[in-house]
Amino acid sequence: MENLKNKTIGSFVAEDFRTAAVFSKYKIDFCCKGNRTVTEVCEKQNINADALLENVFEVLKSENGGNIDFNSWPLDLLADYIEKTHHRYVQEKTNVLLPFLDKLCKVHGANHPELFRINELFIGCAGELSQHMKKEELILFPFVKRMVKTKDTDGVLHKPSFGTVSNPIAMMMHEHDNEGERFREIAALTDNYNPPADACTTYRVTFAMLKEFEEDLHKHIHLENNILFPKAVLLEKDFVEVE
Questions:
Q1: Is pLDDT larger for residue 195 or for residue 60?
Q2: Residue 243 domain-assigned?
Q3: Which residues have CB under 8 Å from 230's CB, separation 6+?
Q4: What average pLDDT is seen over the chain?
Q5: Long-range pairs for 148-153 at CB < 8 Å and ≥24 separation?
Q6: Is residue 36 located within the same domain as residue 135?
Q7: How many structural domains is the chain composed of?
Q8: pLDDT tens, position by position, 105-153
Q9: pLDDT at res. 1
Q10: What is the rounded CA–CA span in Å between residue 14 and residue 5?
Q11: 28: domain range?
Q12: What CATH number should be reported for the domain holding residue 47?
């Protein structure tokens, strides 16, 4: 038990994503801040570490139920999955949420002025994530796939223009942190996505979609921060790069 207290939150979730539900229940950030140990998190948030780990063990002992073991996937497949599943999700949902939030501001903004800040935050999120995903799709992910292919064929890895894969990864993780902070503010402004008593159907649907969007973003960031990125850094170390 004591040894597990020094294990990072992200590594628990990387090994079994079902544990994410436990950490979410305790309001522990397992994606952007998944590099913290159980001890660090529990001390900072005044959580009983033994109780937390007992909850985690209950999940781990239960039947898997078809949980996908992303940790075992080859990196090129994982990069494709993130792009085709989570990047597409972001694109599709932002196209729906932006007009919904704009409508809520016009109809309900007078009685609920917090909607203007929520709308401002999500507009920023949509714009930043769009640029963020393009950088991954055009720069980082192609290099990860090239590393996998080069290793499989015993080829030579040519040094990329960005120097080392750690450089774009550091940028992506910083941007992940920004979105995590943005959504923490959105969650606070929406009372954790609980619509007010006078909310219309559009109001309720929008809050439900925002909640789903944040949950998907958590999984999206987790797959990158806790699995894809650290494994890409380790993979690069297997090569002797040439200019």
A1: 195
A2: no
A3: none
A4: 91
A5: 148/74, 148/75, 148/76, 148/235, 149/76, 150/239, 151/235, 151/238, 151/239
A6: no
A7: 2
A8: 999 999 999 999 999 999 999 999 999 999 999 999 999 999 999 988 8
A9: 62
A10: 16
A11: 1-61
A12: 1.10.3910
